[in-house]
Design brief:
Length: 376
């Protein structure tokens, strides 16, 4: 039968008319009787593997583009993304689409996985099949992801000590820097598949005192960030907090979680104007400052740059190439990672991508931490 293959489906070509979607821009469309046309055209982000490999368009190519848009509408980002055209083509052809976050039902996750299967024969073979499958998914409760930066309630059992937390949505980002230190390369994509909550502020001396019963910091003040605490000291703090909380599990962030939250969708060296967001060597007067005095990042996190460095959960390890999902560092090592820069740091060391390491049993007067937490 004769069919029209659009060949350039993308969000810009779908218009709403009285809440009804209409497809526009048929400039690349073709009427084909054998379900194939061999002239490549359209936007790479929405091209199927078989188009990139063989240059063959069919109805399945349009269904693939619709599936990519469906994925994009659900989570807010493309399943494959890279500024380099050749790398992007390789990702679409070779890499499986990142699974939807666990906030979505298994039925919805399975539907999307089938839509984006590399093997065309395993996908839905017609628009009517896809429509029926979508209707089956939408008969269940609608899934709504929280907006990033939403302030989360206290843990009633022990929450005043843990402090305020901010919701961090699942997503993906490019970690590292081509122009930074060697341990910031290779630049690669990281997928954060699960939402989490991160402390709005660095842990203060008042909160540390309430849990640990001591004040190790060099600079004294209830609202100053705690410092002179080793990674091992922080683990003891976290363990005590977890024994008191029945609702949440607390921990240090992984290095990937930390950079993802610090960037808050930004891609530059900093999450904003450094002087407005950070206490660092140029403006700190050689001391720490009460948390939360500078501007937060887009997601509402304060002092992600400067004031004190922040311990991460990971052992230090060299980066690997290729996309990674929820990395948690080396399996063992000698040094733990810390991030963010401090009151003593020049601007270059406060970059979102900058990595530093230290013996987990040692302390510094410019090294503290903040927490992440998950529902138990």
């Amino acid at each position: 039968s004769t069919k029209i293959v659009h060949r350039n489906l993308k969000p810009d070509n779908i218009l709403l008319q009285k809440e009804t979607p209409r497809i526009s821009d048929f400039g690349l469309s073709r009427v084909v009787s054998d379900n194939k046309t061999n002239r490549i055209g359209g936007i790479l982000d929405y091209m199927s593997p078989e188009i990139l490999l063989k240059g063959e368009y069919s109805e399945l190519g349009d269904l693939w583009a619709a599936s990519v848009m469906f994925y994009q509408m659900l989570v807010g980002w493309l399943p494959w993304s890279d500024s380099d055209t050749n790398r992007l083509m390789a990702m679409i052809v070779l890499e499986q689409a990142p699974p939807l976050p666990s906030e979505f039902s298994a039925q919805t996750r399975n539907f999307v996985a089938k839509c984006l299967d590399k093997d065309p024969s395993k996908r839905y073979q017609s628009a009517s099949q896809m429509k029926d499958a979508i209707r089956a998914c939408t008969t269940s409760a609608v899934e709504v992801m929280k907006p990033s930066g939403q302030l989360i309630e206290y843990d009633p059992a022990w929450g005043w000590i843990a402090g305020e937390f901010v919701y961090i949505p699942p997503g993906q980002f490019i970690t590292g820097s081509e122009n930074g230190d060697g341990n910031e390369r290779p630049v690669h994509r990281v997928i954060i598949s699960r939402s989490f909550e991160m402390g709005k502020y660095q842990i203060t001396q008042k909160r540390w005192q309430a849990v640990m019963g001591n004040t190790p910091s060099y600079f004294k003040g209830d609202d100053l960030p705690v410092e002179q605490v080793s990674w091992l000291d922080v683990q003891e703090f976290v363990n005590k907090l977890n024994t008191k909380s029945s609702k949440y599990f607390y921990s240090l962030p992984t290095e990937a979680q930390w950079e993802y939250a610090c960037r808050a969708t930004t891609t530059g060296d900093y999450a904003g104007n450094l002087d407005e967001m950070a206490w660092y060597a140029s403006n700190s007067d050689n001391k720490t400052h009460p948390v939360g005095q500078k501007l937060p990042n887009t997601w509402g996190l304060y002092d992600m740059h400067g004031n004190v460095w922040e311990w991460c959960e990971d052992w230090f390890g060299n980066y690997s190439s290729g996309s990674l999902m929820d990395p948690n560092g080396a399996s063992s090592g000698e040094y733990r990672v810390f991030r963010g820069g401090s009151w003593f740091s020049p601007a270059n060391l406060c970059r979102s991508a900058f990595r530093s390491i230290y013996n987990p049993g040692y302390c510094l007067i410019n090294l503290g931490f903040r927490l992440v937490r998950f529902l138990r």
